[in-house]
Specification:
Layout (H helix, E strand, L loop, with lengths): L7 H6 L6 E9 L8 E5 L9 E5 L5 E7 L4 E6 L5 E6 L4 E7 L6 E6 L2 H14 L15 H25 L4 H18 L8 H8 L17 H11 L1 H4 L6 H9 L14 H8 L15 E7 L2 E8 L1 H8 L5 E6 L4 H9 L1 H6 L6 E6 L4 H7 L7 E4 L3 H10 L7 E5 L5 E2 L11 H6 L3
Parallel strand pairs: 1-7, 11-12, 12-13
Antiparallel strand pairs: 1-4, 2-3, 2-5, 5-6, 7-8, 9-10, 9-13, 11-14, 14-15
């Protein structure tokens, strides 16, 4: 089958620049009232990394240029049940066709690195469920008990991947990315690990199993999440690493307000992207489609229909300042931040500050298990994929978790909002009472 007969020539003529990629495609056989938005995310953990919400045009096609400063995988998500992972180098053009009439949804990739991406994307979709049922001990368990269970989970999934690779004659390059993805996918579940003390946490994150300083690992998009957990807890660790993509990423996730020198980065284009000036864009929630939401307030769960969730939140708690966290149930750093912020939510529970969490791109069953463990916060679960996409576009979400503040007049802001686990959050909230 010849893919993209109508759009590939035009896109090829407008190739991506050397610090970006072009992602384009079309979705065929969309049913009536079917999803007409798609999300593209290049997942490099940079604060400027954005989940781009793209509306399909009148002929159900799309085209988007995505910043990409070094080669790694990115994701394309159509509806909640299709996550496509593909690998790109700066300057590449990637094309995808999705058949929305199939169950499960079918897709095909072409463009640069077509053979690798067609194999890797389908293999990734096949093996990702291997880690779904992994269960790890509590975050405070001693490292001597925690690490063997963690490694056993990786070994178990590795054996399943070995069988898959052999049965499907998977290429060595795809197999390598699958194996690394296995380690870091499970590590993402462990991002909140604290052990009994900071030394155990550091020892866990720097265990040889992670091959931490190997720049090839950065080709797997989940790896930066592991680096971010390490970098935020131990920023001094980055100073001991050799200059390269690993240290670049760890600089980016540092909470330091002082940007490093440009020549401290191995990739100046990455430095320019992260620290370059950017005109702040005003947030506009009016374009969020009204739809169904599920709200947990105290012990009560209610379903609401035909509402804009941000507007509902502002109206429901009119006159109260709202600290808003946008997270996903599968996001390790999200769960970590929420867990360690229990004390600050408890501290402000008698003030008029409202804490709210909006869950996007998440599994309802996972949320129903997680939600009761979170206290002193109103939670809103978004089941509709198009609504989730439009929220991400309206709030200009760069990644999960993202933080916002809604003032007493209902104006929403994203500039300079401390993270849930930031030492600056308490003073920030006190200034808003």
């Amino acid at each position: 089958m010849v893919l993209f007969a109508t759009i590939s020539p035009a896109i090829t003529a407008k190739a991506a620049t050397v610090d970006s990629i072009t992602v384009a495609g079309r979705i065929i056989n969309i049913p009536p009232k079917g999803a007409r938005t798609i999300i593209i995310n290049e997942c490099d953990i940079s604060p400027k990394s954005k989940r781009r919400v793209v509306d399909l045009d009148s002929v159900v096609e799309f085209r988007e240029r995505i910043p990409l400063s070094f080669g790694h995988t990115f994701t394309l998500n159509y509806k909640r049940n299709l996550f496509v992972n593909a690998y790109a180098e700066p300057g590449d053009s990637i094309f995808i066709e999705i058949d929305a009439s199939k169950s499960p949804l079918e897709f095909h990739l072409s463009g640069d690195r077509a053979e690798l991406n067609e194999e890797y994307a389908h293999a990734f979709a096949d093996v990702t469920p291997f880690s779904y049922n992994v269960e790890l001990p509590a975050d405070t368990v001693a490292l001597a008990e925690y690490m063997p269970i963690f490694k056993a989970a990786i070994d178990s999934c590795r054996k399943l991947i070995d069988d898959y690779v052999a049965a499907n004659s998977i290429s060595p390059e795809t197999a390598r990315m699958l194996y690394n993805g296995n380690i870091y996918d499970i590590a993402n579940l462990a991002c909140s690990y604290r052990g009994r003390n900071p030394d155990e946490r550091l020892t866990f994150f720097t265990d040889p199993i992670f091959d931490l300083a190997n720049p090839n690992n950065a080709k797997v998009m989940i790896f930066p999440y592991h680096l971010s957990a390490l970098g935020r807890s131990f920023p001094e660790y980055a100073a001991r690493l050799p200059k390269g993509v690993i240290r670049d990423i760890m600089y980016v996730v540092s909470d330091s307000e002082t940007a490093p020198r440009r020549d401290d980065f191995s990739n100046p284009a990455y430095f320019d992207r992260v620290y370059g000036e950017e005109d702040p864009a005003e947030l506009d929630i009016s374009g969020i489609t009204d739809g169904n939401i599920c709200v947990l307030e105290g012990d009560s769960v209610i379903d609401l229909d035909r509402v804009n969730p941000i507007d509902w939140l502002s109206r429901r708690f009119s006159g109260r300042p709202i600290y808003l966290d946008v997270s996903a149930t599968w996001c390790g750093p999200c769960r970590e931040s929420i867990a360690i912020s229990e004390s600050i939510r408890d501290h402000f529970k008698h003030s008029d500050i409202l804490f709210a969490i909006i869950w996007l791109k998440s599994d309802m069953e996972a949320w129903t298990k997680l939600a009761p463990t979170i206290h002193n916060a109103v939670q809103i679960f978004i089941p509709d994929d198009d609504m989730a996409n439009r929220i991400m576009g309206a709030l200009k979400i760069h990644g999960f978790p993202s933080y916002y503040f809604i003032d007493r007049q209902g104006i929403i802001n994203s500039d300079g909002i401390p993270r849930f686990n930031s030492s600056a959050l308490a003073d920030f909230l006190k200034s808003k009472i």
